[in-house]
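ok here's the first one, seq then struct tokens
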Amino acid sequence: MARKKIFKTEMISDKDGIRFATPEPVAEYRAKRLQCKVIADISCGIGGQAIYFAKWCEFVYAIEIDPKKIAYAKKNAKIMGVSNIEFITGDALSSDVIAKLPELNVVFSDPARPPAEKERTINNLSPSIPEVMKAYADKTLNFAFEAPPQISPEKIPFDCEKEYMSLEGKLNRLNLYFGDLKKADVSAIALPGSNIIRKNHRNRNVHRSRKPDVYAYEPEECVTKAGLLEQLTSSFKEHDVSIFEIDEKRVLVTSNHLLECKLFKNSYKVVQVMNFDIIKINSYLKQNSFGNVIIRASIEPEKYWEARNTLEKELNGERKAHLFLKENDAIVCEVLDQ
């Protein structure tokens, strides 16, 4: 039996159940967003999300086909002091299971997906979104689904809100909201906290810079995946702000002014831009009291450590450099104290 502290109180499960358990900040946020009188959580697993639904909803029906997971879910609910859940073992799409349910305010589904795919797709969820919505059409029109966050908004062929979620700086979840739950076409939220941006279709034209300005800001991954970086950048109306694309995976917002935004996961001072020459960069870092270098570029692991060891040779200062590489340029940055 394996345990992991993704909740303040440890959840009980086997290794597989813990692997797919919902992190506490995600479970709490979704429970608040879906707060209602009666909710059904289908494919509830070991109960992490259902337990948080129970904290914010009057009653929860938690359905799971695996009796072992249901047993763990019941134990976890007891540990967490939750009693307003009815656990049902069975196929969530079967008429026998659905007949046990009253009229619902919301149905939430975290469907199974293949452990590995060449490309994540909405079509490989099990049970599928159309299957769930058809099966529960007489119970509610409000549905929420979890989907792989690697899927971009344009590849989701449903009339729903696509909400991309980052957790502690990393892309973590994609929530799809149907019916009255939909608040926008696309949105992004960074957890912990509730730092949200929703698509508003009122973007100003945003300048794209070939060089960084004095300050550079790294947006949360949920914002870039949702395609909302231009909207976020254009929201700084009082300052000249531009987008600085480094490579296919990395993009910064840059300005000559200090900016404050909770959808930036890192803020930097650009201290030097120079040609990418490891020996010259090492000399510069040595002269300016740097001691460590984090390379922010697409580079193979073995070459990463070879390059980093060369860059850090004989460095003994206390400053830490973040080194972004764009074509032949090396951009030396330092995290701002905020």
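and now the second one, same deal
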Amino acid sequence: MTRSALAFWLRAPGVGEIRPVALPEPGTDEVLVRSRYSGVSRGTETLVFTGGVPASQYAAMRAPFQEGDFPAPVKYGYLSVGEVEQGPAHLRGRTVFCLHPHQSAYVVPAAAVTVVPAEVPAARAVLAGTVETAVNALWDAPPLVGDRVTVVGGGMVGCAVTALLARFPGVRVELVDTDPTRAEVAAALGVDFATPETAADGRDLVVHASATAAGLQRGLDLLAPEGTLLELSWYGDRQVQLSLGGAFHSGRLNIRSSQVGMVAPARRASRSYADRMALALNLLADPAFDTLITGRSPFAELPDVLARLSGGDLPALCHLITYDGE
């Protein structure tokens, strides 16, 4: 019997649509997943939606179950939570996370799904891919006990990093953003908040996630001598200017990049991708992460939702997409 589902496709830059898709019969080592929720990763997905992925990064930006090619038509996304309806006995009926585009149901290898722990609500579990990015970042540049740490950029990734940093003993964390309403998010996460103009300096570690040149420069200016700035932003095809005069050399400042496509070198020999994802899902047992989900819409409205997110008409951290009346 041929099953059908509905999938979101970017037909052309700035134009999305819902298309029917045929699903294959699951093989021996595959699962059929019925979607319950998916999350819109605002920064990356609006970049894709507007056609801003540079040609040199088409391969690096490819999602695990992407169909089509950049700039369009393409089926893209990677924050999906659903229930296994068919597959190996130990997975049937389980709630799972998968790095799959927005689609009402799909068939993937059983190894591509991770069981969501019982203590993690299914809606919150869409954050797993973002928390995985945050875990990798803090493997790249872990703070020391007593460090003064700033996160510049209170978007989805920046707030996920902030939530994890708030758990480190003796670490004082400040979230910096141009939007003063992010103070409420910072308070919910248990950290300090400042605008770029009022941010504390002398920081041992700055994590930059604002995806702006101004944010990157401000983060560098906040560092103490021999401090480290960890760059998490993705700029797409935009050029970034940075002043490396002043205290950059005399203060022996460091800039490091972090990207979730590979396990951080510090843990690459001892942790697999599956280990990292399982850790991210376990960390989501903390209800503080609920503050990162700032809106929800039914799947049928996703083309309009992405257009509004890209245009700035719909402010959001993670926007939740619901299926089947969830």
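notes on #2: The longest strand covers residues 30-41. The radius of gyration is 20 Å.
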